[in-house]
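Researcher: Structure prediction, please.
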Amino acid sequence: MTPFLQLIFLLAIILLAAKLGGFLSTRIGQPSVFGELLVGVLLGPSLINLTGLSIIADPHVGEIIKELGELGVLILMFLAGLELHLGDLAKNFKVSGYAGTLGVVFPVLMGLGIGELSGMDFSHAIFLGLTLGATSVSISAQTLMELKVLRSRVGLGLLGAAVFDDVLVILLLSTYLALQSGTGGIGQVLLVLVKMILFLVLSAGVGIWLLPRLVRLTNRLHISQGVITLAIVVLLIYGFAAEVLGGMAAITGTFLAGLMFSRTPEKNQIGEGLHSLAYAFFVPIFFVNIGLGVNVRTLDIGAFWLLLGISLVAILGKIIGAGLGARLGKYSWLESLQLGIGMVSRGEVGLIVAKVGLEQGLLDAGIFSSIVGMILITTLVTPPMLRATFAFPGKPQSNNQLLNE
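Model: Predicted structure follows.
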C-alpha cells in the first residue's frame, strides 16, 4: 500500500472515530471534545496504536497526521478570535492581567515545592514548576463555544489571560535558560521581551490599518472564495510570525488574526466558510492527535505518586491562581472558578515546554513521563469540569454587564 493510501486510510478512521466519540460524549452530557480526546487515547499506543499497525509502513504518515492536527488548532483559535471584539477584550484587560499572571505564579511555585519535596535538585524542580505554569486554552475555547458562552465575561477573561500566560511563561523560560547557560543574561531576556512587544505592535498595526484594505481589494477582484483564502493566508502568517518573530505560541498569533478579522464586515462570511472546513476535517484530527501522542504504557508505575502529585498541583494551581486573579478583577466566585478551570489544560503548550527541559537536560526521562501523564489528565478533565460549573443555576454574564459591581 502506497504512503498516500496509508494516509487516507488513517484519516478515514480518525474522522469517523472522532465524530462517533463526540456524539457519544454529548449523549452522556459532556462536550464533544471530551469524547474526541478519549478516542485519541484509545486509538493511540496506549491501546490500539493506530499509526503503528503493520499496514502503516511509512513513518512519515504519522507526522502528516500531526501536522494536519496542528493546522486544526490554528484554525480553531482563529475562529475563537473571530467571535470576539477587540473592545470586549480591552474592557476585560485588568482581570486578564491578574488571572494570567497569578495563573502562572501559583503553579510555578507549587510545582517547585512538590519537586523539592520529591527530592529533585533545584534545576529539575524549578523547571517542573515552569512546565506547570503553561496553559493551552484551545480545549477550553472549544468547550465554551459548544456551550455558547465564549462571549461571556468568563470567555473573554479566559482568552485574554491566556495571552498574558503565554508571554509570562516564555519570559520566565527564557530567563531561566539564560541563567543556566551563563550566556546572554539580562540582555537575552530583554531581547525576548522586545521581540514579543514588536510582534504584538506589528500584528495590531497590520490588522487595524492594512487588513481592511486587503479585504476590500480582494472583494473588488471577484476571486472565487477570495476573502476566505485571504483569511487562511493571514492566519498562517500570524501564526508563523508569533513563533519566529515574537517567540510566542503560534496559537496566540492566529487568535490575534481572528480578532483583527472580527472588525471587518466579512466576519460572518469568513466564519461560515472556515467553520465547515475546520470542524469537518482539521479540528477533529487535532483533538484525536493529542491522544495519539500519548502512551500510557510508558508511564513509570514507580513514579505514580509523582504523577498524582503534579497533576493535583497542576489543577489546583491554575484554579487557585487564575481564580484569585479573576476575583481581584471583580468576577463573582462562580465566574472565578470557571475561569480558573478554563486555564487548567496544558495541552500542546505544556508539552513544548517539557520537551525543551528534556533536551536541555533539565528534566530526566522519568519526570518527563510524569509530565506527559499530567498533560493528558489536565486535558481530559477540563471539558467536563467546565461543563459542570456552567450547569450551575444562573446565566453567564455577558460583557455588557461589565465589572460594575
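Model: Residues 400-405 have pLDDT under 50 and may be disordered.
Researcher: Thanks, that helps.
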